[in-house]
Amino acid sequence: MAAIIETRNLTKIYGGKVKALDDLNISIEEGEVYGLLGPNGAGKTTTINLLVTRIAPTSGTAIVNGFDIVKNSLEVRKSIGVVPQDLTTDEDLSGFENLKMVSQFYDVPAEEAKERIHKLLSMVSLDDVKDRLVRQYSGGMRKRLELIAGLVHDPKILFLDEPTLGLDVTTRTQMWKYVREIQEKLDVTIILTSHYLEEVDALANRISIIDHGKVLATGTSEELKSNLKGDIILATMKTDKDAETLMKYPGAIEAKENGPRAVRLKVQNSDEELPKIIQYISGNSLSITRLTVQKPTLDDVFLEYTGSEIRSEEPTDSRQEMMNLRRLRR
Ligand SMILES: Nc1ncnc2c1ncn2[C@@H]1O[C@H](COP(=O)(O)OP(=O)(O)OP(=O)(O)O)[C@@H](O)[C@H]1O
Ligand SMILES: [Mg+2]
User: Ligand 1 — pocket residues by CB below 6 A?
Assistant: First the structure.
């Protein structure tokens, strides 16, 4: 598989002071859905803005679809679609008119545009409301329109910056379905940023965790999780004494109290360790009321690499989300 995007020591320093990107090297293959995950200020939007040639790098460069972002920015722009975080469609036009306008902007021949617009509208189930003014759209409809507006000129690569920010959980999962369908049917490479771990987990086949402008880890969600080396076993015991004895289980990397009579054991591999724990329990005549195994989540991976939970960054995000919601409702 050939790389469709390759960054080469991509660096961005704002105003001579803020190093937002620090020798970033990532390689994205054709046909991938690639997720950029990182806390606030990690450099995600900066990366996107550089790749879509909205801003210029301080040093280093990137090749996007065979074109250099510094030397051939015009060609780069023609071959990509961008769905920015902020809404861009015109509320005083219908959905169809909005898409028509985009097609004219990109000089797509009228017949071809018509066909493509109809195809896109039906892909995201907007055919029935295509002639309605966008201001009458629900938040979810509007986001779907924004999504396909980035695809009218048949780009090879689609950039999605926070595609579901401000949507409720149900509408968000619906959006995921559409994004997946688009990727499969239109054969487009997708790069997305998100501060929803579940979203990156559900959509991206490869993920880069970035922080302070550097890549901390790259891999599939499964690879990142298995690199953590450690599963969690949660046990609730019948008595305090039973819990105390289980805490001394020798095969654990780590043993912690986890509430009344509950023990949290971190083990190398739960599949191998579980039978031994059960042996230990019966060998010591302990009584157990509950036993569960927890495989690491992307949350744990994120915590391990960045040292902070993505949710602790919520204040800025929810503020932004509230603003977006207001805009969506208007
Ligand atoms: N125009 C700018 N001028 C100066 N500093 C900037 C500018 N844009 C971004 N920065 C800084 O660069 C760093 C990276 O910002 P960026 O917006 O790329 O992060 P992000 O990962 O998208 O964060 P968020 O999750 O909050 O959107 C931050 O320290 C930010 O304050
Ligand atoms: Mg951002």
Answer: 14-15, 18, 20, 38, 40-46, 195
Cβ < 5 A residues, ion ligand 2: 44-45
| pLDDT tens string 131-186 | 999 999 999 999 999 999 999 999 999 999 999 988 888 999 999 999 999 999 99
Q: Which residues lie closer than 8 Å to 323 by C-beta, 6 or more apart?
A: none
Q: Distance from the CA of 40 to the center of ligand 1, in angstroms? A: 8
Distance 198 CA to ligand 2 centre (A): 17
Q: What is the DSSP string of 259-296?
A: STTEEEEEES-HHHHHHHHHHHHHHTT--EEEEEEEPP
- Kindly report, residue by residue over 292-320, the tens digit of the pLDDT: 998 888 888 888 888 877 654 443 444 44
Q: Which CATH architecture has domain 229-295?
A: 2-Layer Sandwich (3.30)
Give pTM, 2 decimals. 0.81
Asked if residue 170 lies in contact with residue 147, where contact means CB atoms within 8 angstroms, the answer is no
Could you tell me the residue ranges of all domains in the chain? Answer: 3-225, 229-295
Please check whether residue 60 is in contact with residue 203, taking contact to mean a CB–CB distance below 8 angstroms. Answer: no
In the CATH hierarchy, which fold is given to the domain comprising 3-225?
Rossmann fold (3.40.50)
CA dihedral 173, 179, 180, 182 (to 10 degrees): 150
Closest CA to 5 of 68, 60, 58, 54: 68
* Distance from residue 58's CA to the centre of ligand 1 (Å): 15
